[in-house]
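Support request from a user on the community tier.

User writes: "When I paste my structure tokens into the form, the page sometimes reloads and wipes my input. The last time it worked, I copied everything first. Here is what I submitted, just in case something in the input itself triggers the reload:"
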């Protein structure tokens, strides 16, 4: 697998800081709930600078990471040298069919072409393989337009309602085993860095987030078949 050619914008704040709401604690909880085997293979989809790769490498014999950002992949390689890293699109994964037991997708699904990315996840997961997603979602669809009007294609402007997320996961051929709201983790997340990274005006963000009831979720799904 090869490294990087170009960068893409990301909304995470700093590689030394918490990379997503809930941080390592939420990642640990999700992985523990799935009861993986040491010999399983795991993929971090949108691995960024490699924060979660370190956790995956402690649990799995083989760990892979995919991202579009050259600079973030290089940082990830320094943090977790045993992981196999590849610069690739989530919609066109460089893996053979049914080769992964677990896919972790933290705060990245909303940045992809969701249907295509989920189809690829289902393709590379073995039967009964697990998909773990954490991301933003909205609890008031009436406020979705306000979020979509925010500048740039970020996880903020592309947040979806629970019903839409679940429908897309199921359409890709996966059974939803678990959904939890973790909005408390979102409230404690240092959004000041998120605002500066996306270029969103703080006042506009607060209004749009309030209208849409911006929230945070954890979903665990299993490939059927």
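"...and here is what came back when it finally went through:"
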């Amino acid at each position: 697998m090869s490294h990087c050619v170009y960068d893409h914008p990301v909304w995470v704040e700093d590689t030394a800081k918490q990379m997503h709401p809930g941080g390592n604690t939420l990642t640990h909880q999700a992985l523990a709930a799935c009861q993986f085997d040491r010999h399983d293979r795991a993929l971090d989809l949108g691995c960024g600078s490699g924060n979660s790769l370190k956790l995956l490498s402690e649990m799995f014999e083989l760990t892979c990471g995919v991202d579009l950002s050259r600079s973030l992949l290089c940082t990830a390689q320094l943090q977790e040298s045993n992981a196999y890293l590849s610069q690739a699109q989530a919609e066109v994964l460089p893996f053979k069919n049914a080769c992964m037991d677990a896919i972790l997708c933290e705060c990245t699904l909303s940045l992809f072409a969701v249907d295509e990315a989920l189809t690829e996840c289902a393709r590379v997961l073995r039967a009964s393989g697990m998909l773990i997603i954490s991301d933003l979602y909205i609890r008031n669809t009436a406020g979705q337009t306000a979020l979509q009007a925010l500048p740039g294609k970020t996880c903020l402007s592309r947040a979806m309602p629970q019903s839409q997320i679940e429908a897309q996961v199921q359409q890709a051929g996966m059974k939803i085993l678990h959904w939890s709201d973790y909005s408390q983790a979102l409230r404690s997340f240092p959004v000041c860095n998120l605002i500066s990274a996306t270029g969103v005006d703080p006042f506009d963000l607060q209004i749009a987030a309030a209208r849409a009831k911006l929230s945070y979720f954890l979903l665990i799904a299993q490939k059927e078949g």
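Agent notes: The reload is a front-end session timeout and is unrelated to the input. Residues 1-17 have pLDDT under 50 and may be disordered. The two ends are 28 Å apart (CA to CA). Escalated to web team.
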